């Protein structure tokens, strides 16, 4: 008696497939619908975003104005203290910084002019800046 083999031979499958477009007419392309819905959502959210940005800008402006006012007041106070302590160059520096924040403030202008006059008359410092201020006041 002959022995049977321990395995079975599987026939080779040699069919090839080629890629071709589908002929199924029921398939729908949903890409335009997705883009349309996204566009509608974007258009509906845009006014709220613009409103939010405007409110944020107003809030930032208010915070900046408060910070500038606090900084200005600090510089004026510091300048006055330095002026009383006879630190004329430090006081002038503080008043000059205060004028950079609020250039039309008459109090800061008068303190800066007074300090600059003292510096020029007593120590012959910054006389050219005093001349420039005198020319601006005359105009």
Keywords:
139 residues, mainly alpha, 4 helices, 0% strand
Which value, in Å, is the CA radius of gyration? 41 Å
Number of strands: 0
Number of helices: 4
- Strand content range: under 5%
Would you identify the regions where 5 or more consecutive residues have pLDDT less than 50?
A: none
The ordered string of helix (H) and strand (E) elements is HHHH
Q: What distance separates the N and C termini?
A: 131 Å
> Shape from CA axes?
elongated
User: How is the main sheet built?
Assistant: none
Provide the structure class: mainly alpha
Task: Give the fraction of residues assigned to helices.
Answer: over 70%
**Overall pLDDT score:** 85
Task: Give an account of the 3D structure.
This protein is mainly α and 139 residues long. The protein has a domain at 86-139. 71% of the residues lie in helices and 0% in strands. It has four helices and no strands. It has helices at residues 31-84, 88-101, 106-123, 127-138. The N and C termini lie far apart (131 Å). The chain crosses the membrane at residues 30-50. It comes from Winogradskyella maritima. Keywords: Membrane, Transmembrane, Transmembrane helix.
